[in-house]
Design a protein that fits this description.
Beta-galactosidase, Chain A, domain 5; 10-stranded antiparallel sheet; 5-stranded antiparallel sheet; globular; Galactose mutarotase
Length: about 300
């Protein structure tokens, strides 16, 4: 059974543990739906799947986070057939001598997760990672809503003997009211952009400009192939928000207001989805803990 959070302005749908079942995204707090309740008028939705084709992609949907996209904990030390931990999921098995690949499916032995719904507006996940190669941890994830804001709080306690050094980000699969990507959308950042990509063809459908100190991204047309770019990190506390996505005809929008130090930024998408991704470095010594939070605001521009 899935979980829900609801107040007068937001309805949040959250998957049951194991409903996703893949080896990429955090199983706890896998947010599959966000609805902005517009009293007396049509409500607005934000979350879409990674792919519209069944069986394609890695199973992402809505606001789902991942640990270790590029820094897989313990993978390099694991031999073929041995296990390594993936925070938020479980112990994965290394099948061969190939390098770790985030989009590959690995055998999973899930971690134990306790779920507590404190009230209609707050849900807490507490996961225990069993020891593996010197790594062990407790991950607590609290999801709460207040007015039109959604907050996801993380606390990672290192209970192992080795330092945990990885990264975390949220893959925000957004398609406002399922409207296709194209000139009707604009993506804003609170600073002038210096975007780059290993594959310049992923920039073909994008338009970059600066306006009043903002970095603005637009689309020439509905993209017929995936788009992707990266941007160097910055100190999130310097800005009132980190990114803002607007569907201009309706004015329906979302922004992220997180205030942690951003290690880097990526934007990925295709014809039905736009995903701004804000990364944070996670470095926790044995016996220590690290806490951070992500804050989203859903609104209609006046």
């Amino acid at each position: 059974m899935a979980y829900q959070l609801k107040n007068e302005q937001l309805l949040i749908d959250i998957a049951e543990i194991g409903e996703y079942g893949g080896s990429r995204f955090d199983w706890s707090g896998f947010i599959t739906g966000v609805t902005l309740i517009n009293e007396g008028r049509d409500s607005h939705t934000y979350c879409v799947p990674e792919s519209l084709t069944a069986g394609d992609g890695t199973g992402g949907e809505g606001l789902c986070n991942e640990f270790g996209l590029r820094k897989a904990i313990g993978y390099d030390d694991a031999k073929m057939g041995e296990q390594f931990p993936k925070l938020g999921i479980g112990l994965l098995t290394r099948p061969d001598d190939e390098e770790y690949a985030f989009d590959r499916s690995y055998p999973i032995r899930p971690f134990q997760v306790h779920v507590e719904q404190e009230n209609a507006c707050k849900l807490v996940f507490r996961g225990t990672q069993e020891p593996c190669g010197g790594f062990s941890a407790h991950l607590t994830k609290c999801i709460a809503i207040h007015n039109n804001r959604l907050t996801v709080e993380y606390e990672l306690l290192n209970t192992g003997t080795k330092e945990i050094y990885t990264e975390e980000y949220c893959h925000n699969f957004i398609g406002i009211d399922e409207q296709p990507v194209g000139p009707d959308y604009v993506l804003k950042f609170p600073y002038v952009l210096n975007p780059w990509s290993d594959d310049k063809e992923t920039l073909d459908d994008l338009v970059f400009r600066s306006e009043a100190g903002l970095g603005i991204v637009g689309w020439r047309k509905k993209p017929d192939k995936p788009f992707y770019f990266r941007q160097e990190g910055f100190e999130g506390a310097k800005y009132p928000w980190l990114w803002e996505l607007i569907h201009q005809p309706s004015g329906v929008a979302v922004r992220e207001l997180s205030t942690f130090s951003v290690s880097d930024v990526a934007v990925w998408g295709q014809g039905h989805v736009i995903s701004p991704e804000i990364f944070i470095e996670v470095k926790v010594a044995p016996g220590e803990r690290k806490s951070w939070s992500r804050v989203y605001e859903f609104f209609i521009e006046s």
